[in-house]
């Protein structure tokens, strides 16, 4: 069994600022039709699909729509790795706790943006 396509998608989105949302349409089509259908044993409406994309903390399943995540995924990854990249580029000492802070801050920003989006679901 190979690497799940969602893992490959996340890796590609993190590494490529030019990741185009439409490239992920076939994956998004398969999520509700195959994966979520198998997990939930029933058809999935568009509203349910949007709800399942939300973070667990607000009642979702954290199965994001890969067509809507390329820019946010890349931006979060870029911000999280900035300390490490700067240390390498400038041949400076790598400070582990400073890197940890950058990663935590980037993840927190990403999560808060996801939660903000969750309030737009009902609109």
Tell me the distance between the termini. Answer: 41 Å
The computed structural class is: mainly alpha
> Could you tell me the strand content as a percent range?
under 5%
The counted number of beta strands is 0
Radius of gyration: 17 Å
Broad shape: elongated
Percentage of residues assigned to helices:
55-70%
How many helices? The count is: 5
Major pleated sheet: none
Overall pLDDT score = 77
N-to-C order of helices and strands: HHHHH
What low-confidence regions span 5 or more consecutive residues with pLDDT below 50? 1-8
Describe this structure in words.
By secondary structure, the protein is mainly alpha-helical. It is 63% helix and 0% strand. The protein has helices at 5-15, 25-40, 46-52, 70-89, 96-118. The longest helix is centred in the last third of the chain and has 23 residues, at 96-118. The radius of gyration is 17 Å and the shape is elongated. The relative contact order is 0.13. Mean pLDDT is 77; it is low at 1-8.
Short description:
This protein is mostly helical and 123 residues long.
């Amino acid at each position: 069994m190979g690497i799940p396509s969602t893992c490959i998608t996340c890796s590609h989105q993190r590494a490529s600022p030019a990741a185009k949302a439409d490239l992920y349409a076939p994956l998004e089509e398969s999520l509700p039709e195959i994966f979520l259908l198998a997990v939930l044993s029933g058809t999935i409406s568009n509203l349910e699909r949007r709800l399942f994309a939300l973070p667990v903390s607000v009642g979702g399943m954290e199965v994001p729509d890969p067509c809507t995540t390329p820019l946010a995924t890349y931006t979060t990854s870029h911000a999280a790795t900035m300390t490490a990249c700067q240390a390498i580029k400038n041949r400076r000492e790598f400070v582990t706790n400073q890197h940890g802070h950058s990663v935590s801050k980037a993840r927190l920003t990403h999560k808060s943006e996801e939660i903000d989006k969750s309030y737009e679901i009902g609109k």
